[in-house]
Write a structure and sequence with these properties.
The chain has about 400 residues and is mainly beta. The chain has five helices and 24 strands.
Length: about 400
């Protein structure tokens, strides 16, 4: 599905589901959300992403920032050492050719059947017994088992272990797998603008595709629609429909991001493609969610507990996040936040608007302490608060 993102360039669209269709059936269109101001639901910190499988580069628009009650689903898993790959280093790997040789065995194609037809996405191997990280929107509408194709030409059925729509992440388990190569997970916190990166996945169903580029921006707030806003690694490495869930890696061969969204000049998947603006979920944001999914837990996300919209200055420039409401008993309420406060920074990081605030808080975990800079009646103030959790009880 697609929606249109209001902007100064109406021909541009944010395609948040680079998922390749292999079937002529195409889903319909969501109504245009229109150019109205972005309203906030309660700011939920870890991630507010959701997506749809079915082969469409869809879900854009300035949608509401949902409260922290959006659903997550999980299932129990048997493996107790799934994430041992996290601390693996691919030290000494240099150059795109060497990176490709090291990483390709750890990236898979995921084939999905839905009520709309058949499509495919990508995934990153987490463990030698076949646990795989991908985007929620790749698998959320699957009917029956998934099918995973490995780089060596073998394939296996797979089932969903757990999903988290708020972060657009999912873990699946390939059946009967005992000896595949897990990816080396790095740190997105080490990424730098201008750094060379490599994208690996299955764009348009072309498995084992490698493209390269640079990190062109960091912590880019990406509104994926449906309450989905995340702090993205922006890259000009070509990312296309089908790359969703695949790896963005540094030149040491370490995964620093999960490719998730693209900006495209078209409003439809069949016409959309890379124009040099791709977005990946940082692996540091993904890691705690994946650990909870693997453990069979419901993922938790940090939150302030306020409803926000863009604060627009007299000049028309967005100048922060305007608090419209404060959730009773929330971290924001306990810190004394009030309606009409304008949040301008978090721990010294400027907040340019509602999306920016959500994306910034998303990088924290429940129980983290943050300092908010704000304007109250045009006077600057600061307040420190401990982020609570959408699990229903404040985090310790």
């Amino acid at each position: 599905m697609t929606t249109h993102e209001p902007s100064s360039h109406p021909e541009d669209h944010l395609a948040t589901h680079p998922h390749q269709p292999e079937h002529p059936h195409q889903p319909g269109h969501r109504p245009d959300t229109g150019p109205g101001r972005r309203r906030g639901g309660f700011v939920a910190g870890a991630a507010l992403l959701a997506g749809l499988v079915g082969g469409v580069a869809g879900a854009a628009g300035w949608s509401a920032l949902y409260d922290d009650q959006a659903a997550s689903t999980t299932a129990e898993v048997s493996s107790d050492d799934t994430l041992t790959a996290q601390n693996v280093s691919a030290a000494g790997v240099k150059g795109v050719q060497q990176v490709a040789a090291a990483v390709l065995p750890s990236v898979v194609q995921i084939n999905v059947r839905t009520s709309q037809g058949v499509g495919s996405g990508s995934g990153v191997i987490l463990s030698s017994d076949g646990q795989i990280l991908t985007n929620n929107h790749v698998v959320e509408d699957a009917v029956g088992d998934l099918a995973v194709s490995f780089n060596d030409g073998t394939s296996a059925p797979a089932e969903v272990v757990g999903t988290d729509p708020l972060t657009d992440l999912a873990v699946i388990q390939a059946d009967g797998i005992t000896d595949v190569d897990p990816a080396a997970l790095g740190s997105s916190g080490d990424a730098a603008v201008g750094q060379e990166v490599v994208a690996v996945g299955s764009p348009f169903g072309l498995d084992g595709t490698v493209t390269s580029g640079i990190v062109s921006a960091l912590d880019r707030p990406v509104d994926a629609g449906g309450g989905s806003v995340f702090p993205a690694i922006q890259t000009d490495a070509a990312i296309n429909p089908g790359n969703s869930g695949g790896a963005l890696v540094d030149l040491a061969g370490n995964v620093v991001g999960i490719n998730t969204a693209i900006r495209t000049g078209s409003s439809t998947a069949s016409e959309g493609g890379s124009i040099g603006l791709g977005f990946a979920i940082g692996i540091d944001e993904a890691r705690p969610i994946v650990e909870q999914l693997v453990a069979g837990e419901t993922p938790t996300h940090a939150r302030i507990g306020v409803g926000v919209t863009d604060a627009v200055a007299d000049s028309g420039v967005v100048a922060g996040a305007l608090v419209e409401e404060v959730n009773a008993g929330s971290a924001g309420a306990q810190a004394g936040l009030e309606g009409d406060d304008v949040i301008t920074a978090v721990d010294g990081v400027p907040v340019s608007g509602a999306d920016s605030l959500v994306a910034t808080i998303r990088q924290y975990r429940p129980g983290d302490e943050v300092t908010l800079a704000l304007l109250r009646d045009q006077e600057p103030e600061e307040t420190t608060l401990t982020l609570d959790s959408d699990a229903g009880t404040p985090a310790s």
